[in-house]
From TrEMBL:
Keywords: Calcium. GO terms for molecular function: calcium ion binding. The keyword Lyase does not apply. Transmembrane segments: none annotated. PROSITE patterns: EF_HAND_1, EF_HAND_2. The keyword Acetylation does not apply. This is EF-hand domain-containing protein. CDD domains: EFh. Gene3D superfamilies: EF-hand (1.10.238.10).
Amino acid sequence: MTYCSSSYSRSQSHSHPYQYEYRYSYTTQNGQVDNRTVSLPTDCFDRFISYAPRQTISQQNFMKVVQAIMMGSNATDCDIREAFSILDTDRSGTLDVSELAKVIPAIMPGTTSNTLYTMIRRYDKNGDNTLNLNEFIRLVKGDLGRDLVYRDVLMI
């Protein structure tokens, strides 16, 4: 995928509080241009910014990961693979708690290591306490991102 353009903006509407939007376009392998927009409530994005000095993930990559997680079952396999690659900072081919901790606490305030371990155990089919790409795809396609935001799941 070739990224052509991107932009950030803050917006407000009557139905939504302030949101931070990331818009980007890319050209797919078959030459089509796909436009995407990811919107986050400002408080969610601000939480990420407050974690930024400790993190090794850029704002742009953060938004790409959040997009895949929040799109859930509607996320493309390409978006999920890219999110996985961004999070897999040690290039082990798996995600552990420390790698998930780069994004999940910004989406779900108060997330603890125990919460992240519970999430991994829920989707870890081979019992290695990490998520490989297929397990991460199941996590994302299972709409866990939306569950995190609405706190319907993983209340520990």
